[in-house]
Design a protein that fits this description.
The protein is of the alpha+beta class. 37% of the residues lie in helices and 21% in strands. The protein has 20 helices and 21 strands. The strands form five sheets. Strands 1-7-8-10-9 form a five-stranded mixed beta sheet, with helices on one face. Strands 3-2-6-4-5 form a five-stranded mixed beta sheet. A five-stranded antiparallel beta sheet has the order 11-12-17-13-14. A hairpin with a 2-residue loop joins strand 19 and strand 20. The protein is globular and about 75 Å long. The two termini are 42 Å apart. The relative contact order is 0.09.
Length: 517
């Protein structure tokens, strides 16, 4: 559908939106309802852009949660958010309070470091373990560490060093060092959390939360500072976005939150998709995995890992656990960042996205969605509804490589993703996609052409590397120079060659000049 057609459809779509809203189940309400610990809260008159961090410190006077970076990087503001899991219990995850907006708490339970100590003053096992292992010095970062360890404890504890490191990657410490904190995690992990009492309490909390919001309608805040809508169904979402095509769509807030805390933007209106149930599903068919636009990285991790191990590992390295618990695959695509981690991998796999405007849906190849920097093939009133990721053929090799200054929680300088099929020594199929090399995530079509139909050998590798210079003209910025980016991209092809050829062939390349410029 062309943009000209969309302009002519504007009036019919608005009428259609009114019909959808009229038929939508439930009404709208302006109260934010949640549990703060065990206490019920019903808030009205709240600025929809107020962060959870500011609410805790300024309104509730709970100052245990700290502000460090105000961008979801340092972890000092870490809190635990719980919501009913659909099975009569609760699921808990860590999030960064500094970039989470208060209305997103609706229907959930918010836990802070103040809620861990028992009424008789006894420290929680996690807190006691931090004391006994001397896991705190200045103490500023300690509440965030405690909350990350608490969530680990709620999941049953952990003794594996790698799993503990992963849980703590989003919490920065400048004085104690991680050794004692890791020991605290192990010590606390030995005290079981999933006993009968805890499970019963989780069921009770889930029942309370369900009763607070069930049948109460979707959240719609009209405030002098701005409007906020939280539809419950994709039909409601579609209708709202047609009625408010200039709205900011909010998912996890890992990007949008910074527009408020760092750029001081006023967003009006905001349409939050985190409560849209049918956008939070992951479905598998024989040929594909279908991921709703509201599915978080954490939720999508296992399914994407089954598509290809390297995609799962790539997702594990996106941000921190707090970021992965909030950020969404759909949001990463819709924002159109040239250095987003998932798009190059999904492009190499041949992924498509489903776009929706009102009741009209269309499929677009993901590689065609990105037009140029800051511009995507998305019409006014249209939103990303889902992502369709094909399962690769059994003889297709998929590799993804992320290059960044830090292994964890760092922005990518260059990301290369490759889908390769070699038959009888010849390249039968090859798709290569890169991030950080252009104004959008992009396929390297000249590089692909240099390989397809050729013997998979050093000569073909060299031709493919030279072709990259025709595909891309990268820029220099604070993360990497253009020369570095090109060299790295060419070397990633060498890495692919080494990992997909016989050991004796790979050995010849190790230590040789890898790039052909």
């Amino acid at each position: 559908m062309c943009r000209f057609c969309c302009r002519h459809l504007a009036i019919p779509l608005i009428v259609e939106a009114e019909v959808i809203m009229a038929n939508a189940t439930g009404s709208f309400r302006n109260e934010i309802r949640f549990l703060l610990g065990d206490e019920e809260r019903s808030l009205q008159g709240i600025d929809p852009q107020m962060t959870v961090l500011d609410y805790l410190r300024l309104e509730e006077r709970k100052s245990g949660t700290k502000e460090g970076c105000a961008e979801g990087d340092c972890g000092a503001c870490t809190v635990v958010l719980g919501e009913p899991n659909g099975n009569g219990g609760m699921g808990y995850r860590t999030v960064n309070a500094c970039i989470q907006f208060v209305p997103t708490l609706d229907g959930k339970q918010l836990l802070t470091v103040e809620h861990l100590k028992s009424k008789d003053g006894t420290l929680h096992p996690v807190q006691q373990a931090m004391v006994e292992t001397h896991g705190s010095q200045c103490g500023f970062c300690t509440p965030g560490f405690v909350m990350s360890l608490y969530q680990l404890w709620l999941d049953g504890g952990e003794d594996d060093r790698g799993a503990i490191n992963d849980a703590l990657a989003g919490n920065l410490c400048r004085c104690t060092g991680y050794g004692p904190i890791i020991e605290a995690a192990r010590k606390a992990g030995g005290i079981a959390a999933n006993d009968t009492l805890v499970q019963k309490r989780r069921a009770d909390v889930a029942a309370r939360l369900t009763a607070m919001v069930d049948g109460a309608g979707a959240l719609a805040i009209e405030h002098a500072a701005g409007r906020y809508y939280a539809p419950r169904t994709s039909d409601e979402l579609a209708a709202l976005f047609v009625a408010h095509p200039d709205a900011t769509v909010l998912a996890g807030g890992t990007d949008v939150g910074l527009w408020v805390t760092k750029m001081l933007k006023r967003l009006d209106p905001i349409i939050y998709i985190g409560d849209v149930a049918d956008l939070k599903s992951v479905r598998e068919t024989e040929t594909a995995v279908i991921i709703g636009a509201g599915v978080t990285y954490s939720r999508a991790h296992d399914a994407l890992g089954r598509v290809a191990a390297d995609v799962g590992e790539l997702v594990r390295r996106i941000g921190s656990r707090q970021i992965r618990n909030a950020g969404t695959v759909g949001g990463n695509i819709a924002n159109g960042s040239p250095i987003g981690d998932t798009p190059p991998a999904l492009i190499a796999l041949g992924a498509k996205i489903v776009l929706r405007m009102g009741n009209i849906q269309r499929e677009v190849a993901l590689e065609d969605f990105f037009i140029t920097y800051g511009k995507q093939d998305r019409h006014v009133g249209e939103f990303v509804e889902s992502v369709i990721v094909p399962k690769p053929a059994k003889d297709l090799v998929f590799k993804a490589y992320k290059i960044s200054k830090r292994f964890d929680q760092d922005i990518t300088a260059v990301l290369g993703a490759f889908a390769l099929q070699v038959e009888d020594g010849k390249v039968r199929e090859f798709r290569a996609a890169f991030g950080g090399m252009a104004g959008t995530p992009m396929r390297a079509k000249k590089c692909e052409a240099a390989m397809i139909g050729q013997d998979w050998n050093e000569a073909t590798l060299g031709a493919a590397q030279r072709a990259l210079a025709q595909d891309f003209a990268p820029m220099s910025d604070m993360r990497a120079s253009k020369e570095y980016r090109m060299l790295v991209a060419q070397n990633l092809l060498t890495k692919l060659f080494i990992e997909t050829t016989a050991p004796e062939v790979a050995t010849r390349l190790v230590g040789k000049e890898a790039a052909y410029v």
